[in-house]
C-alpha cells in the first residue's frame, strides 16, 4: 500500500536587524580547525539557545514552529494531522560530532549533531481513519526522540555581492535517526479514554513503523529549520568574516530568519499491516435440547413420503419435502422447528491474531431452511455406511442478540445488541459414516459416527447494532468494514459457523435415525 505525506511547515518570520559585530563571547576559529569548530558550534547551541536579538539570532531551544501539517492521503493510515504552535526542544544539549568543508574554497559542507532528547511539543488536531476506524481528536501532543542523530549536508559556492564574497547554499539535505521515538496524543477519539489509551499504546509499540511513515515529514521540517538557520548565517556575513583574521570561521552558526511557508514536498512510503494471522476458534453451542423433541418409536405420519432405500432422486425429493412442508417441525419424526431454527447460545472465541474477541450470541434464529434445495443425498441404501448430503439455502440468516468484547486490530471493541448475519447461496456439504445397530426392541437403527461438513456462500452480510456502546460513527464504520471485508471475516468465522451448523444437522439427523428404525424410513421391500 502506498501513502503519501505532505508536509507544510511555516516558521515564524523574525524581523532581523543584523549587527555587524559578533558578541565578544562568540568564539571564532581558524579555517579548517576541526576541533575548534566542533566546540564552537556546540558552545553556540549551549550559550545562545535563547537567541541573540542584536544579531538576529532567534531562539533555538525551544524553536517554535507555527504550523506543521501531515497529510496522508491513502493507505491504511488516512489522516490529516495538523500541529500548531509546536516547540522543538532539546537543541541546547546538541553535541556537534562532525563539521567538515569549512575551507577557504568551500563547496560541500556537512554537520553531524546528536541531540540527546528532542521533543516536539504542542497542539495537534487529527481527522481521518486509522485502519478501519475513524479517528479524531484535538489536544496536546508530545513526540519525543532519544539520541536524535541529525546529519546535515549541503552544497554551495562563493558568490560576489557588493564586492564581498558570500557563501550561497544550494542543495540542502537532512537525515536523522533516533534510538527511540515516543508519542503521546491527549484527548484522542474526543476523549474516549479506553480508545485513546489504546491508540497511544499501539503507536508506541509500533514506533519504528510509525517513525518510518513520519520520517519524511519530520525530515522536511528539520530541513526547513536548518536550511533557514544555515543559509541565514551565510547570507548575512561575508564568508571570510566568519573566520579569524588569519582565515578562520566564526561560529555564529545560527542567526536564522525564516521565510514563510516553504514549498510543499510530497513523500511516498509503504506501510505493512500485521494481518497475517493465526486465529484460534472455539465454539460452544447448545441446541434446543433433545427434550424438546418428542421421542416416538414408530413412524405414523401418513403424509410423510417414503422411498425405496437407495432411490436417490426420491430420497432427495423426500428430504426437500420434509424441509418445505414441515418447517414448523415434525414431532412424529422428532423434528423441532426447522425454520426458524432456534439456537440458544453460540459463542465464538478468537484467542490470537488481529481479531481477538469473545463474541456471544444468544437466542439466535436461523431462518432459510424452508427454502432449502437438496442437491445430493447419497448412501441411503439397505446396508448404510457412509452418507452424504448437499444442501443449498438461497438465503440463510442468523438473527439474534450478541455481546462482544475484545480487540479488533488495535482497538478495544465492545458492544451488546442485535445481530444479523446473512448468507446468500449457502452451500452445505455433509458427509458422515455409521452403521446399523440393534436396539433393545430388536429393531435396527442407523447409528451416526463421524460427521464432516464444509460450506460456501456467495455473499456474507453482517450487522451488529449498538457496537462501541452505541457510538454511531465508530459502530457504522465497523459494520462497513466487516461488510467490505466479508470474505476475510467469513474466513475467520467459517470454522465457527461450520461447527454450529454441523451440530445442528447432526442433532436433526441423529434424532431422526434414533427415533425411527432404519427400514421404517423407507417403503417396505417389495
Ligand atoms: C514528552 O514525552 C517524553 C517521553 O515520554 C517525556 O520524557 C517528557 O516529559 C514529555 N514532555 C512533556 C512536556 O510532556
Ligand atoms: C550518526 O549517524 C551517522 C551516519 O549518518 C553515523 O556515522 C554515526 O555513527 C551516528 N552517530 C551516533 C552517535 O549514532
Ligand atoms: C438481515 O440482513 C439481511 C441482509 O442485509 C436483510 O435482508 C434482512 O432483512 C435482515 N434481517 C433482519 C431480521 O433484520
From TrEMBL:
Protein name: Uncharacterized protein
GO biological process: circadian rhythm
GO cellular component labels: extracellular space
Keyword Signal: yes
Transmembrane segments annotated in the record for this chain: none
Family affiliation: Belongs to the TO family.
Domain of life: Eukaryota
Listed InterPro entries: Haemolymph_juvenile_hormone-bd, To_sf
Keywords: Biological rhythms, Signal
UniProt key word Signal: yes
Cleavable signal peptide: 1-19
Amino acid at each position: 500500500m502506498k501513502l503519501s505525506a505532505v508536509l507544510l511547515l511555516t516558521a515564524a518570520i523574525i524581523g532581523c536587524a543584523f549587527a555587524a559585530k559578533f558578541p565578544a563571547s562568540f568564539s571564532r576559529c581558524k579555517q579548517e580547525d576541526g576541533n575548534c569548530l566542533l566546540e564552537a558550534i556546540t558552545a553556540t547551541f549551549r550559550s545562545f539557545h535563547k537567541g541573540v536579538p542584536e544579531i538576529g539570532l532567534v531562539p533555538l531551544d525551544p524553536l517554535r514552529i507555527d504550523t506543521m501539517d501531515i497529510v496522508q492521503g491513502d493507505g491504511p493510515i488516512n489522516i490529516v494531522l495538523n500541529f500548531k504552535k509546536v516547540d522543538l526542544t532539546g537543541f541546547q544539549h546538541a553535541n556537534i560530532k562532525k563539521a567538515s568543508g569549512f575551507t577557504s574554497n568551500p563547496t560541500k559542507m556537512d554537520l553531524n549533531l546528536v541531540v540527546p532528547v528532542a521533543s516536539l511539543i504542542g497542539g495537534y488536531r487529527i481527522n481521518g481513519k486509522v485502519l478501519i476506524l475513524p479517528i479524531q481528536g484535538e489536544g496536546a501532543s508530545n513526540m519525543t526522540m532519544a539520541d536524535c542523530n541529525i546529519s546535515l549536508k549541503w552544497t554551495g559556492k562563493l558568490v560576489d555581492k557588493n564586492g564581498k564574497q558570500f557563501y550561497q547554499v544550494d542543495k540542502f539535505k537532512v537525515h536523522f535517526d533516533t534510538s527511540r521515538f515516543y508519542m503521546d496524543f491527549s484527548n484522542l477519539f474526543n476523549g474516549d479514554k479506553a480508545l485513546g489509551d489504546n491508540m497511544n499504546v499501539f503507536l508506541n509499540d509500533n514506533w519504528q513503523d510509525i517513525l518510518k511513515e513520519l520520517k519524511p515529514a519530520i525530515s522536511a521540517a528539520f530541513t526547513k529549520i536548518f536550511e533557514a538557520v544555515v543559509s541565514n548565517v551565510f547570507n548575512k556575513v561575508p564568508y571570510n568574516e566568519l573566520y579569524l583574521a588569519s582565515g578562520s570561521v566564526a561560529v555564529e552558526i545560527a542567526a536564522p530568519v525564516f521565510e514563510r511557508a516553504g514549498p510543499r514536498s510530497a513523500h511516498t512510503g509503504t506501510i505493512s499491516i500485521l494481518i497475517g494471522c493465526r486465529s484460534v476458534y472455539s465454539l460452544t453451542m447448545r441446541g434446543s435440547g433433545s427434550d424438546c423433541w418428542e421421542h416416538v418409536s414408530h413412524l405414523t405420519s401418513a403424509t410423510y413420503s417414503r422411498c425405496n432405500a437407495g432411490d436417490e432422486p426420491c430420497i432427495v425429493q423426500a428430504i426437500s419435502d420434509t424441509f418445505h412442508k414441515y418447517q414448523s417441525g415434525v414431532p412424529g419424526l422428532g423434528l423441532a422447528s426447522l425454520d426458524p431454527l432456534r439456537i440458544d447460545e453460540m459463542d465464538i472465541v478468537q484467542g490470537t491474531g488481529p481479531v481477538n474477541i469473545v463474541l456471544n450470541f444468544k437466542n439466535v434464529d436461523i431462518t432459510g431452511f424452508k427454502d432449502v434445495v437438496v442437491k445430493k443425498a447419497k448412501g441411503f441404501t439397505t446396508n448404510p455406511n457412509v452418507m452424504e448430503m448437499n444442501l443449498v439455502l438461497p438465503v440463510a440468516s442468523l438473527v439474534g442478540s450478541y455481546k462482544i468484547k475484545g480487540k479488533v486490530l488495535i482497538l478495544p471493541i465492545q458492544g451488546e445488541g442485535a445481530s444479523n448475519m446473512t448468507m446468500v447461496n449457502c452451500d452445505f456439504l455433509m458427509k458422515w459414516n455409521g452403521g446399523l445397530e440393534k436396539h433393545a426392541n430388536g429393531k435396527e437403527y442407523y447409528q451416526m459416527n463421524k460427521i464432516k461438513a464444509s460450506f460456501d456462500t456467495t455473499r456474507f452480510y453482517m450487522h451488529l447494532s449498538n457496537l462501541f456502546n452505541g457510538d454511531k460513527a465508530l459502530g457504522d464504520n465497523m459494520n462497513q468494514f466487516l461488510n467490505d471485508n466479508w470474505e476475510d471475516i467469513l474466513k475467520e468465522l467459517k470454522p465457527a459457523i461450520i461447527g454450529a451448523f454441523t451440530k445442528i444437522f447432526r442433532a436433526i439427523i441423529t434424532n431422526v435415525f434414533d427415533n425411527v428404525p432404519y427400514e421404517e424410513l423407507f417403503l417396505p421391500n417389495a
